[in-house]
Amino acid sequence: MATIRKPASPSPPPPSGSAAGDLSLGSAADAPHGSRPEQVYTRLRDLIVQGLLSPGSRIVETEIATRLGVSRTPVREALQRLQQEGYVNGSPGAQQSRLTVAPLTRDDVYELLNIVGALEGMGARGAGLLPSAERHTLSRELRSLNAEFQRSGKAVPIDHGVLYDADERFHRRIVEASAGPRLLALHDAVKPQAERYIRMYISMLTGDIRTSVYEHDLIIASIDEGRADDAELAVQVNWRHAADRLSKVIAMAGERGSW
Length: 259
Description:
This protein has helices at 36-49, 61-68, 72-84, 106-128, 132-154, 160-178, 181-201, 210-224, 228-253, and strands at residues 58-59, 88-89, 99-101. By secondary structure, it is mainly alpha-helical.
């Protein structure tokens, strides 16, 4: 992400209280693939990541089951998984009806983004160890993705969703280049939690993306030249800087859902 803009309130989330947002799973053709608990989990996670279930809002199991048109069993299973992954919090000994969407805090974002950096750094290291022909092909793809990211950041007005997606494609391509199934699974589990923060505060982070573009260039050069250690470090530094910037933004704009 980029340098911090003067604080202007992030996009306001839906009102706190009980769960908000469009909870419909849609028709069978529109619903996510997989079992019913998986569908419920995917729908609820997407709503949390997109800020449609706002940080700190209550999650009532019976209400969600009714609005999704499913029994309480798949909802309970989905909420247990979301709680294990850190999207949902519950007080010790509390019933499911006391669950809330996890808040967005400075301490959490710093830990979370550095974890993402460690995972993606492993992917970059693997990419730097690929045969030279594969590295060069990958580097060309990454340069194209970084150029797309740069163009998105220069648009007037900036479409923050498009900008985030461009950045995400760049980072995901690095991980996919050489990662095994375990690293991909860990990345799939953790990255959306970071996405919650970035999407909530991105309007305050995109005043100037030149630093991010430059850091991406350093990553690409390290991979292209087969400097695996440098590639890993460059990705970690990129995310550490993003954590620093987001932490400062949250300090100015306020934590969400922690009151």
